[in-house]
């Protein structure tokens, strides 16, 4: 079983739709949960960060963590063409070697 | 705008060349990283420096040589690379001077390397 599973897409949705991106993980030691956004030919940008189960909202973005199911989600409301990018989930634990574990990334296109 | 600055943005080199990638951050972060990213793949960790000391080397070939001259600077020296080393090389930093590292990384724009 892979440590992190993320559907690579590609995912295409019309402008204004709600987007749901998901990752599952198997490592119970993960304490911190992140979403990075990466535009083509750019470095990843930290979008959302949380360390507890539940929801965290920032503007049009909501990060959801369910530690019991080992499942995290990112919701984008009122999606815009500028949201077209690759979204990477990422996980971190202070126990062990302090390495960030990335999902494979989901390529998202918002169609005007 | 990213607060992690990488130079050069693009680099083309032959297999016998020696070149360096440079990275700078002024956020007071204690850890700096080099990642390699191939197209349509997530970043792969290469090296981690913590408090200017090499703490993680992910079994990277010796043709890649990292250097951390001070807490704000990170270099990656390249020598005798292979065409398969062509990739986007990303620098990142994390962790203001506090005891707990929470894994929030701040990436630079990357240096796109092509090896001929």
Q: Quick recap of the structure?
A:
The complex is a heterodimer of chains A (112) and B (116). By secondary structure, chain A is an all-beta fold. Chain A has strands at 4-6, 11-14, 19-25, 32-38, 45-50, 54-58, 61-66, 71-76, 85-92, 101-102, 106-111.
Written account of the structure:
The complex is a heterodimer of chains A (about 110) and B (about 120). Chain A is an all-beta fold and about 110 residues long. Chain A contains no helices and eleven strands. In chain A, about 0% of the residues lie in helices and about 55% in strands. In chain A, strands 2, 4, 5, 9, 10 and 11 form a six-stranded mixed beta sheet that branches. A five-stranded antiparallel beta sheet of chain A has the order 1-3-8-7-6, with no helix packed on it. In chain A, a hairpin with an 8-residue loop joins strand 9 and strand 10 (about 100). Chain B has about 120 residues and is mainly beta. Helix content of chain B is about 0%, strand content about 60%. In chain B, strand 7 and strand 8 (about 75-80) form a beta hairpin. The model of chain B has no long low-confidence stretch (mean pLDDT about 90). The chains are: A mainly beta (about 110), B mainly beta (about 120). Chains A and B meet through strand 4, strand 5 and strand 9 of A and strand 9 and strand 10 of B.
- What amount of the residues of chain A lies in strands? over 45%
**Mean pLDDT over the residues of chain A:** 93
Helix content of chain B: under 10%
Series of secondary-structure elements of chain B, N-terminal to C-terminal: EEEEEEEEEEE
Q: Count up the helices of chain A.
A: 0
Radius of gyration of chain B: 14 Å
Span between N and C termini of chain B?
31 Å
Radius of gyration of chain A: 14 Å
Q: Decide which structural class fits the backbone of chain A.
A: mainly beta
Question: Termini of chain A, distance in Å?
Answer: 38 Å
Classify the beta-strand content of chain B into a percent band. over 45%
Shape of chain B: globular
Low-confidence stretches of chain A: none
């Amino acid at each position: 079983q892979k440590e992190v599973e993320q559907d690579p897409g590609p995912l295409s949705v019309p402008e204004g739709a709600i987007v749901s991106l998901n990752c599952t993980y198997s490592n119970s030691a993960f304490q911190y949960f992140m979403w990075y956004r990466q535009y083509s030919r750019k470095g990843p940008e930290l979008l959302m960060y949380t360390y507890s189960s539940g929801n965290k909202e920032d503007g049009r973005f909501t990060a959801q963590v369910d530690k019991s199911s080992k499942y995290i989600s990112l919701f984008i409301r009122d999606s815009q063409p500028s949201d077209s990018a690759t979204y990477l989930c990422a996980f971190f634990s202070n126990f062990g070697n302090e390495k960030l574990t990335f999902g494979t990334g989901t390529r998202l296109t918002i169609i005007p | 705008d990213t607060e992690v600055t990488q130079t050069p943005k693009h680099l083309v080199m032959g297999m016998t060349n020696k070149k360096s990638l440079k990275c700078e951050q002024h956020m007071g972060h204690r850890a700096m990283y080099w990642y390699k990213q191939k197209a349509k793949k997530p970043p792969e960790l290469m090296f981690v420096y913590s408090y200017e000391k090499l703490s993680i080397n992910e079994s990277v070939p010796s043709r890649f040589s990292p250097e951390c001259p001070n807490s704000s600077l990170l270099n990656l020296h390249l020598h005798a690379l292979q065409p398969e080393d062509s990739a986007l090389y990303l620098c990142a930093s994390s962790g203001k001077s506090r005891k707990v590292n929470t894994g929030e990384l701040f990436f630079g724009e990357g240096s796109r390397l092509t090896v001929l």
